[in-house]
Amino acid sequence: MSQIRITKKFSFETGHALYGYDGKCKNVHGHSYKLNVTVIGTPISDQNHVKFGMVIDFTDLKKIVKEEIVDVFDHATVFNKNTPHVDLAKELKDRGHTVLLVDYQPTSEMMVIDFAEKIKQRLPENISLHSLKLQETESSFAQWFASDNE
Ligand SMILES: Nc1nc2c(c(=O)[nH]1)N=C([C@H](O)[C@H](O)COP(=O)(O)OP(=O)(O)OP(=O)(O)O)CN2
Ligand SMILES: [Zn+2]
After folding, report:
1. Where, by residue number, is the active site (predicted)?
2. Least packed by Cβ within 10 Å: which of 13, 28, 29, 94?
3. Is 97 annotated as a binding residue?
4. pLDDT in tens, 117-146
5. Which residue has its alpha carbon closest to ligand 1 atom 7?
6. Where are the domains of the chain?
7. How far apart are CA 53 and CA 100, in angstroms?
């Protein structure tokens, strides 16, 4: 049976700041992120299976990505916890804002690496993560490919 890639698209609004960066993105600002998640597998061939003909039910893929990424990052502001931004994060949290402290500089590259690890851990054994595309602006995106990271 053929190996097939299927993709589901997600979007979320997230704030961030790049501490120490030499440009305008050192300021707290936000993006309407777009995330394409592509998995690969063989469509289920058992005619009696409720998911007959599917690599993975798009609805099941949506649940995983929503729980791991979208619901966590949407309308949160992300800071690198290894920088003085922790003080700003604490102030915002104390004032009731949703803040996410991560162990990396929150660039598209580092976020897509984080997302790949989180999604891989939740996929069923017979399905692999093929690639992710994280779009920060209309003209800027980062991609993660399993084949580049074997
Ligand atoms: N390699 C990376 N470079 C930059 C990142 C990043 O994640 N990886 N991030 C930023 C900023 O956070 C922000 O995304 C600005 O990027 P840029 O594409 O320059 O945004 P603009 O709005 O100026 O882009 P347009 O060309 O107007 O669409 C900076 N660099
Ligand atoms: Zn940005």
Report:
1. 25 (proton acceptor), 75 (charge relay system), 136 (charge relay system)
2. 94
3. no
4. 999 999 999 999 999 999 999 999 999 999
5. 107
6. 4-148
7. 39
pLDDT beneath 50: ranges in the chain: none
Residue with tokens 């992710």: 132
The candidate with the shortest Cα–Cα distance to 36, out of 64, 72, 17, 8, is 8
Cα 86 from Cα 78, distance rounded (Å) = 10
Listed in sequence order, the residues at least 6 apart from 17 whose beta carbon sits closer than 8 Å to its beta carbon are 25, 26, 27, 28, 29, 77, 79, 85, 106
Does domain 4-148 fall under CATH 3.30.479.10? My reply is yes
Which residues lie with the beta carbon below 6 Å from any ligand 1 atom?
Answer: 18, 25, 107-109, 136-140
Indicate if 68 belongs to the active site: no
Tokens for 89?
């994060």
Q: Ligand 1, from 19, 25, 78: best to mutate by most atoms within 8 Å of Cβ?
A: 25
Token pair listed for 59: 């609805």
- How far apart (Å, rounded) are the C-alpha atoms in residues 13 and 120? 23
